[in-house]
């Protein structure tokens, strides 16, 4: 999870997030190069004495500064489109979870486990145990296996919400009357936090999401849900 004074994105827990971090670093280097070039040109303009102020035709320069930005845009767009299509792929998920947004809590349905349904509320400060995170921990966590393709079906029962877990690279809107889906495959166990990322009312800040990812063998041993 994020920490104070953090510079950069959270550590990746899924292949999609690893791709997003790589693209972020790639785009950042392009921005650095552009900024350096512009600042260098400004520096030369301010410090160099112009020896010829009558130049009115520079077709070669105009050609370069027209083609070069186009090439830069292509270098940014291609990996961006690749990741965009990767996020839409659904490759035979092994488990399907339905998440329903409410004002202001989440309901989860394990459709492959006999319709197991439970609500997930934020823990009030009076109920926090030592080590729990204020405004982030919930009473019922979503327990899922790692190294398993998982499909999330996301919708809402009242207003717009957004189901987001940054470390997995997930952010999908929950829209009333519409069922959106996203998939992910977690690569390592742990407890990962997210929040509603769509302003949904007075208590928008109090809709945390907590995923507890465990090895598949432990998940298959039996009920691991604490309700």
From TrEMBL:
GO terms for cellular component: mitochondrial inner membrane. It is found in: Mitochondrion inner membrane. Residues 92-225 form the Cytochrome oxidase subunit II copper A binding domain. GO terms for biological process: electron transport chain. It catalyses: 4 Fe(II)-[cytochrome c] + O2 + 8 H(+)(in) = 4 Fe(III)-[cytochrome c] + 2 H2O + 4 H(+)(out). SUPFAM superfamilies: Cupredoxins, Cytochrome c oxidase subunit II-like, transmembrane region. Its cofactor is Cu cation. The chain crosses the membrane at residues 27-46, 66-85. It comes from the Eukaryota. CDD domains: CcO_II_C. One of its GO terms (molecular function) is cytochrome-c oxidase activity. Binds a copper A center. InterPro entries: CcO_II, CcO_II-like_C, CcO_II_C, Copper_CuA, Cupredoxin, Cyt_c_oxidase_su2, Cyt_c_oxidase_su2_TM_dom, Cyt_c_oxidase_su2_TM_sf. Residues 1-91 form the Cytochrome oxidase subunit II transmembrane region profile domain. Keywords: Copper, Electron transport, Magnesium, Membrane, Metal-binding, Mitochondrion, Mitochondrion inner membrane, Respiratory chain, Translocase, Transmembrane, Transmembrane helix, Transport. Pfam families: COX2, COX2_TM. It is a multi-pass membrane protein. Belongs to the cytochrome c oxidase subunit 2 family. Component of the cytochrome c oxidase, the last enzyme in the mitochondrial electron transport chain which drives oxidative phosphorylation. The respiratory chain contains 3 multisubunit complexes succinate dehydrogenase (complex II, CII), ubiquinol-cytochrome c oxidoreductase (cytochrome b-c1 complex, complex III, CIII) and cytochrome c oxidase (complex IV, CIV), that cooperate to transfer electrons derived from NADH and succinate to molecular oxygen, creating an electrochemical gradient over the inner membrane that drives transmembrane transport and the ATP synthase. This is Cytochrome c oxidase subunit 2. It comes from Homo sapiens.
């Amino acid at each position: 999870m994020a920490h104070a004074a953090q510079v950069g994105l959270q550590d990746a827990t899924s292949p999609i997030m690893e791709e997003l971090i790589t693209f972020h670093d790639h785009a950042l280097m392009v921005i650095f190069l552009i900024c350096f070039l512009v600042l260098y040109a400004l520096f030369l303009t301010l410090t160099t004495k112009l020896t010829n102020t009558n130049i009115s035709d520079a077709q070669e320069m105009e050609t370069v500064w027209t083609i070069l930005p186009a090439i830069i845009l292509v270098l940014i767009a291609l990996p961006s489109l690749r990741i965009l299509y990767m996020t839409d792929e659904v490759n035979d998920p092994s488990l399907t979870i339905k998440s329903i947004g409410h004002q202001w809590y989440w309901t989860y349905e394990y459709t492959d486990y006999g319709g197991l349904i439970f609500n997930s509320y934020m823990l009030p400060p009076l109920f926090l145990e030592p080590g729990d995170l204020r405004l982030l921990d919930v009473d019922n966590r979503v327990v899922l296996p790692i190294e398993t393709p998982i499909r999330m079906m996301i919708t809402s029962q009242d207003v717009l919400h957004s189901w987001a877990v940054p470390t997995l690279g997930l952010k999908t809107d929950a829209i009333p009357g519409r069922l959106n889906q996203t998939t992910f495959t977690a690569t390592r166990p742990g407890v990962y936090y997210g929040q509603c990322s769509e302003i949904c009312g007075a208590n928008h800040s109090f809709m945390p999401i907590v995923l507890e990812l465990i090895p598949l063998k432990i998940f298959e041993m039996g009920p691991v849900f604490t309700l």
